[in-house]
Amino acid sequence: MTKNIAIFASGEGTNAQNMMDYFKSSDQIKIALIVSNKPTANVLNRAKANNVPTLILDKKTFFESNTIVNHLKDLKIDLIVLAGFLWIIPENLINAFPDKIVNIHPSLLPKYGGKGMYGMKVHEAVIEAKEKQSGISIHFVNEKYDEGEIIEQHTCSISENDTAEILAQKIHQLEQDHFPKAIEKVLLVK
């Protein structure tokens, strides 16, 4: 029985692309939908190129109705994957998909998480604090930013001369190497 994933993304879509590539030949897991809150997000172009249906969210519908929940249930979505999606997930969606929403964060949570901590802001804070290592946290989503149960973490070292841009490249490589495999484990173990 095929497991269906909906990927929520707000931007470029490199993690979404990585997942589309990873699961393209799978007979167990299918990327069934790409959801974005930005009509100009490049992730939508990536979805189109891979023949994956898309949905563009507006704030009012997302936060004040069950339209999205019902649509995802109609599509028999088994897991929602947040890949650079910058809105907090509303309670009705969390309640409809308990332990079935996964996020990736570009630090070793609980460090450098929470509202406003995403992308380069995280890497700049890590470098400024002179940390010796950073990494990624793949975690379940609850009603608070970056506080859901951690599924797995992967680390990279930070050398003295690393900039936030260099750290971003290291983190991106960890995401590419580990995120699809973690999603596969979550879907096939549960």
Description:
- With 190 residues, the chain is α/β, with parallel strands linked by helices.
- The chain has 2 domains: 1-98, Formyl transferase, N-terminal domain (Rossmann fold, 3-Layer(aba) Sandwich), CATH 3.40.50.170; 105-139 and 148-177, no CATH class.
- 39% of the residues lie in helices and 23% in strands.
- It has helices spanning 14-23, 42-49, 59-64, 67-74, 91-96, 119-128, 164-189; strands spanning 3-8, 29-36, 54-56, 77-82, 101-105, 133-140, 150-157.
- The chain has a 7-stranded mixed sheet with strand order 3-2-1-4-5-6-7, with helices on both faces.
- Helix 1 (14-23) runs parallel beside helix 7 (164-189) and helix 6 crosses helix 7 (164-189).
- It is globular, with a radius of gyration of 16 Å.
Global structural class: alpha/beta
* Number of continuous helical runs: 7
**CATH homologous superfamily descriptor of the largest domain:** Formyl transferase, N-terminal domain
**Major sheet strand order:** 3-2-1-4-5-6-7
Name its key features.
alpha/beta, Rossmann fold, seven-stranded mixed beta sheet, 39% helix
